[in-house]
Specification:
single chain; alpha/beta; 5-stranded mixed sheet; elongated; Biopolymer transporter ExbD; transport; protein transport; transmembrane helix
């Protein structure tokens, strides 16, 4: 009996199918964006200018050592208490020029939100998670104050409208909302500085 020839498989359309699957997965796959800390670096300056003098009472210093112990405004503090301490510092209104500040008006603390600076000093051996927790609490303090003022002035929360605009789900006049967001940011400008890390 003669040998039977093995039937050939028509693979001509395999390349087309693979190409279609590749296009399908490229179109339907979502690529997640990495989220980081939103910080804008200052522009590069050609000549060194002497920085304007800042009163010591307008600086809120946060120091973190290698054991992740935090010293905030010369007091040993837990991360959970940092947000409230930052709010009290920013909202103090010590010189009386801030009409919207609701703080204690302590003359020994910050004059007004425009002059208040928060500086963070990290030890090189402190953990990244501690750094992120501190940054989150400080941003949370600014957001709390901005939410309060936007609620008072416009009847909506700064963080909610800002998020809705970023996601493209804001229903309303976007340009007007962006202008109002900028006005709120001017009331409580985010002045965070990072000191050189210690050896």
């Amino acid at each position: 009996m003669g040998r039977r020839a093995t039937p050939e498989v028509n693979a001509g359309s395999m390349a087309d199918i693979a190409f279609l699957l590749l296009i399908f997965f490229l179109v339907t796959t979502t690529i997640e964006k990495d989220k980081g800390i939103a910080r804008q670096l200052p522009p590069k300056q050609e000549k060194q200018e002497t920085p304007p003098p800042i009163k010591e009472k307008n600086i809120f210093i946060i120091s973190i050592n290698r054991s992740n112990d935090m010293l905030a405004d010369n007091e040993l503090m837990e991360v959970e208490d940092l947000r409230q301490a930052a709010i009290e510092f920013l909202d103090n209104g010590g010189d009386g020029s801030c009409t919207y500040c609701k703080g204690r008006k302590n003359p020994a603390s910050s004059d007004n939100p425009d002059k208040a600076v928060i500086t963070v000093k990290n030890d090189r051996e402190s953990t990244y998670s501690m750094y992120i927790q501190v940054q989150n609490e400080l941003v949370g303090a600014y957001n709390f104050l901005r939410d309060r003022e936007s609620q008072r002035l416009y009847g909506w929360k700064f963080t909610e409208v800002n998020k809705a605009i970023d996601e493209g789900s804001y229903k309303g006049n976007i340009e007007k909302a962006k202008d109002r967001l900028k006005e709120i940011q001017k009331l409580f400008p985010m002045k965070l500085s990072e000191a050189d890390t210690k050896q």
